[in-house]
Specification:
CATH topology: Purple Acid Phosphatase, chain A, domain 2
Number of domains: 1
CATH superfamily: Metallo-dependent phosphatases
Strand content: 15-25%
Radius of gyration: 18 Å
Strand order of the largest sheet: 4-5-3-2-1-11-12
Number of helices: 8
Distance between the termini: 43 Å
Oligomer: single chain
CATH architecture: 4-Layer Sandwich
């Protein structure tokens, strides 16, 4: 039985890449029944997109989003930097699905501001080739990580995240995340928002931030590559959902098809030829 939720926020799914945990995301989406679904950017990764890799599990995510909209869920797709090609269609709507650059909601007597967050990234705004080069490097790291985790699973070992380790221990990465959260919150406070909800940095978070001008709640929905997280708003309260495979281990929806069984072979070739 799906849980009824007022709002579900997901971001940074990166469909079309090896790192996307589409099966886990579909498990989660099947477990909820949201009145509103907000996709906060980087849903489809056009920067890394390859015609040779878009497996059935990724298509099932798109189908599930359409199913939500057909059954009355209001779907808002906030455009990010990796799916920026959609900006030409900004403010268009298709039934219950709307494409926007940002979204503002009244939640009770509080105001919430949703946007992806790439607006704070100078490399994306002013030097896209640098950002894309960084994106390729990150994608290679994720590919290597997928391959290493496959080997670890075969050996009965726990999976390990290279990029999470780097982000949590490299001073510049830690500082960038802190600056991002501070900047988003300061801007929200200046504009009288109680909540500011972002994606982009793949760092799930809910925390109160206070400045000399006021306070707000900063939230980040994380991603579906490393953290497998979503934000949920229900009964006037925000919570951070983190995927746990034990919650869904009885689910039989995801038998590997022959195409997906070839993924590791394709991945090895792509890593060698990157």
């Amino acid at each position: 039985m799906a849980r009824k939720v007022d709002i579900v926020v997901i971001s940074d799914v990166h469909l079309g890449t090896y790192g996307c945990q589409a099966k886990e995301l579909l498990h989660y989406l099947k477990s909820v029944q949201p009145k509103q679904l907000i996709i906060n950017g980087d849903f489809i990764d056009i920067w890394q997109f390859k015609k040779s890799y878009f497996p059935k599990s990724h298509l099932k995510i798109i189908k599930k989003i359409i199913d939500f909209s057909n059954k009355g869920t209001e779907v808002t797709y906030i455009i990010g930097n990796h799916d920026e090609f959609l900006r030409r269609f900004s403010n268009a709507s298709f039934g219950n699905i709307a494409l926007v650059n940002k979204k503002i909601l009244e939640l009770g007597n509080k105001k919430a501001w949703f946007f992806h967050g790439d607006v704070f990234d100078a490399s994306v705004q002013h030097s896209k080739w640098i950002a894309k080069l960084g994106g390729w490097g990150y994608d290679l790291l994720i590919r290597l990580n997928v391959l290493s985790n496959w080997i670890l699973v075969q050996l009965g070992k726990e999976k390990y995240s290279f990029s999470k380790k780097i982000k949590n221990n490299v001073k510049k990465a830690v500082r960038f995340i802190g600056d991002f959260e501070k900047t988003a919150s300061e801007l929200a406070i200046e504009n009288n928002f109680d909540y500011v909800i972002c994606g982009h940095i793949h760092q799930p978070q809910i925390r109160e931030i206070e400045t000399k001008n006021g306070r707000c709640t900063y939230l980040n929905s994380g991603d579906w590559i490393e953290n497998l997280t979503a934000l949920e708003y229900h009964n006037s309260e925000w919570t951070l959902f983190t995927y746990d495979k034990k919650m869904f281990e009885e689910n039989k929806d995801f038998e590997l098809d022959p195409y997906e069984q070839q993924t590791i072979e394709m991945l090895i070739k792509d890593v060698i030829n990157f």
